[in-house]
Amino acid sequence: MTLSVDNGINQIEGLLRQAKQSIDDGRVPVRIYNDPDIFALEKERVFGRAYIYLGHESEIPHPGDYVVRYIADDHLIVVRDEQGQIRVLFNCCRHRGMQVCRAEMGNASHFRCPYHGWTYRNTGELVGVPAGKEAYGDVLDKRAWGLRSVPRVESYAGMVFASLDAQAPSLDEYLGGMKWYLDLVTRRSEAGLEVIGAPHRWVMDANWKLPADNFVGDAYHTLMTHRSAVELDLAPRDPKFAMYGVHVHAGNGHGLGMISSPPGMELPPFWGYPQEVVESLQRSYPTPEHVAVARRINFLHGTVFPNFSVLNVMIAKDHRSAPTPMLTFRVWRPVGPDRTEVWSWFLVERDAPAWFKEQSYQTYVHTFGTSGVFEQDDTENWRGITRVAKGLMARDHELNYQMGMSFLKLDPTWPGPGEAYPLDYAEANQRAFIRRWCEYMLNEV
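^ thats the sequence. predicted structure below, dont judge the formating
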């Protein structure tokens, strides 16, 4: 049995080494998007080691506030303890393994297991064992049997990340140059961002890497996939509007695209945010370069490796409404080689005008909410790719990832970190994402 498992891993690692080599030529095996053996390995080697986004600090503002979140199959309690510290605890009783917290969100000073009643403080400390003296005598050391904490928990600009790997680098090192670009959407206000409502959640029959790939750098799909939005005046009238921008590989597999006004079509600067927000960002941004870049942006899409994506766009909620900026964070939680649970948060500046918060939220729901028109367009593509990646012919079938390889040159004038290309029709970010995924899967990181 061990020999069979080892042979299976060797075969997968052979495929991964081939994929890492072929990505330099812009070729990717489609098999990686629907293979149960690959999926089993990436849960351990990617999601067991990378930093995963769990939520925003504004979701648990008060002592005792908690939400239940996930890293692949691991159930976690993200809680603010009585001293205000954010902790991430494994949602598994140390006695018989029952979930100690079965509500998705709430406020609690303690968590009590419904099976036998073992009780834990929201710090994870075991403080109550029913009939403990009678059942255990003096042998049970409560200090040794608290809820397990996730080894690495860190926040950046209100965003809470965790890694199951005690040897993971710091979040600062992990994010690297991507911090500069996250600042564009998280630091527009001295008051910071806040999450409005609970995250939307739904399951789609698609591999998690496909939406991560789409957000990290695929502006090209808007020309066809979202053509109806152009024709309905929900997006700029130039079908190639997403081409006019910058494509940035920020390092470590992270990347983003930023889209500006198409030629001859001057859109409002700063994503079209109201004047109150624009004045705030001019005070709050870390550098003048952030202000200069934000002035020319109307759309921003990006992914923090492996499965946390950001989308900040100025778009119309319907054909009668003016374009309105909205911001969403995404997590593509893998639940199978061909199934992904989508987590979608709506965020807005905490001190933005109330009228704008409502208008921005409506725009999010209509366009990129659970049943939003853009969301449905994208999901159908990802489902289709996953379906055809499963068969026998898919085992030796390659996809073309060569866009921009032969002619795009780096922009030496770009003020931010990373490798910037002066066109958002490119696939440098996708190639970097797949290369980083291969490195994790081969234990090279």
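The chain has two domains: 52-157, 176-441.
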